TrEMBL record:
Localisation: Membrane
PANTHER family, sorted: MONOCARBOXYLATE TRANSPORTER, RIBOFLAVIN TRANSPORTER MCH5
Membrane topology: Multi-pass membrane protein
Key words, A-Z: Membrane, Transmembrane, Transmembrane helix
Keyword Magnesium part of the UniProt annotation: no
Family listed: Belongs to the major facilitator superfamily. Monocarboxylate porter (TC 2.A.1.13) family.
UniProt cross-references to InterPro entries, sorted A to Z: MFS (IPR011701), MFS_dom (IPR020846), MFS_trans_sf (IPR036259), Proton-linked_MCT (IPR050327)
Name this polypeptide is given: MFS general substrate transporter
Segments crossing the lipid bilayer: 24-47, 67-89, 96-115, 121-141, 153-173, 185-207, 228-250, 262-281, 293-312, 318-341, 353-374, 386-407
GO cellular component, one term: membrane
GO MF terms, alphabetically ordered: transmembrane transporter activity
Keyword hit for Transmembrane helix: yes
Span of domain Major facilitator superfamily (MFS) profile: 29-408
Species in which this protein is naturally found: Stereum hirsutum (strain FP-91666)
């Protein structure tokens, strides 16, 4: 009898604790993730501000394609670092990765403020910036995903909305500061803002999962997962075009005769639309299915580029396009992580997210320069660049739809 009670106590102790949705630690993690993405991806979404400034000042002798390599390189480094950072997240949790990321990211902005040569911008705002963003983005977002199951897309959508809010704030902040205090201090001030956000993220972001022994650097089994690989290919195709409007909307607007102030404002409008696109579709996705939202929204972002951007020649039309594109592209950014998590085990989330973003790094690297090369080849005519953007998004959206049908052949099933 005593042995039975003893065995019962042991089995009770070994019984896994039930999953607790959210809780105070979960909500704090979402808040910290929001600030981390506000500071990092928000600055990346504002690269169009730098693209225009560089083309008229420090790098005026370089082509738009050359300048866009800075933004594309930071995207590539950020995405490619995901596989390595995801492995460390699964093994050690988010805290020290976030601390290191805050230091490196702030350092990159301070070095950017001192840069005058093309190679210096490549190193500071391309390579080092991308590493800092990765160290803040992946641990904070992966940590938020571990605290939620039923409302994972909603939680991640709220966290990712921080990048859109940052994309609204930073173009307005930088445009005003560039003219009032000059480029170096404008970048330094933005760096201090990002430092404060990083410190808060370090203090609030936690993972629900205990640290585990590091696994292999590459999860080979994931490459044999047809759904995971097809999803990565579809998302990668979207990434060929998804960031192009954020890079070129300011320059395009000025080409249409819009003032510099209004051109910067349009980038903020695009990011404002993305705020709603990253929160509202995430909430709906938890109700109707994450793949059911991601695939059509990617296709619609492409359709609106072909239908609206191609014919937008005044402030009203450009504003309308910026709002719609921001909304539909925002859903693509916020729903990627929950869709990866949906086809992964809980203990694979960090590694799988990192691997997926590493694969996405290559199309993200070449997307902007390809668009710039098309623009140069057409002697400043943006039509080819816009068609390239729309077609990439539509093809990628249909590939993601194919993954949804592999999960459940019923077209109307919740997936």
């Amino acid at each position: 009898m005593e042995n039975d009670r003893h065995c019962g106590a042991i089995s009770l102790a070994l019984k896994p604790t039930p999953f607790k949705e959210g809780g105070i630690h979960g909500y704090l993690t979402v808040f910290g993730s929001f600030l981390a993405l506000f500071a990092t991806f928000g600055q990346m979404n504002a690269f169009g501000s730098f693209q225009l400034w560089y083309s008229e000042h420090q790098l005026s002798q370089y082509s738009p394609s050359d300048i866009s390599w800075i933004g594309s390189l930071q995207l590539w480094v950020f995405f490619f670092s995901g596989g390595i950072i995801g492995r460390f997240f699964d093994a050690y949790g988010p805290r020290w990765l976030l601390v290191l990321g805050t230091l490196i990211y702030t350092f990159s902005l301070m070095m950017t403020s001192l840069a005058t040569k093309y190679y210096q911008f490549i190193l500071a705002q391309g390579v080092v910036f991308g590493i800092g963003v990765g160290l803040l983005f992946y641990p904070s977002l992966s940590a938020a995903a571990t605290h939620f199951s039923k409302y994972r897309a909603t939680a991640v959508g709220i966290a990712v909305a921080g990048s859109s809010v940052g994309g609204v704030v930073f173009p307005l902040l930088l445009q005003r500061l560039f003219n009032e205090v000059g480029f170096p201090w404008a970048v330094r001030i933005s760096g201090f803002v990002c430092l404060a956000c990083g410190v808060v993220a370090c203090l609030t972001c936690t993972s629900r999962l205990p640290p585990k022994k590091p696994g292999p650097w590459i999860d080979v089994a994931s490459f044999r997962d047809v759904k995971f690989m097809l999803f990565s290919i579809g998302s990668g195709t979207c990434c060929l075009g998804i960031f192009v409007p954020f890079f070129y909307i300011v320059q395009y607007s000025q080409d249409q005769g819009v003032s510099q102030r209004l051109a910067f404002d349009l980038l903020s409008v695009m990011n404002a639309g993305s705020v709603f696109g990253r929160v509202l579709p995430g909430y709906i996705a938890d109700l109707v299915g994450r793949y059911n939202m991601l695939a059509p929204f990617a296709v619609l972002a492409g359709i609106f580029s072909l239908a609206l951007w191609l014919n937008a020649h005044n402030v009203a039309a450009l504003t309308l396009y910026s709002v719609f594109y921001g909304f539909f592209s925002g859903a693509f950014i916020s729903l990627n992580t929950p869709c990866i998590a949906q086809i992964s085990r809980m203990d694979q989330i960090g590694t799988r997210i990192g691997m997926a973003y590493s694969l996405l790094s290559f199309p993200s690297l070449v997307g902007g320069p390809i668009a710039g090369a098309i623009l140069t080849r057409q002697h400043g005519d943006f039509s080819g660049l816009i068609i390239y953007t729309g077609v990439a998004l539509i093809i990628g959206g249909f590939l993601i739809l194919a993954v949804k049908l592999m999960i459940n052949r019923n077209f109307f099933a919740k997936v």
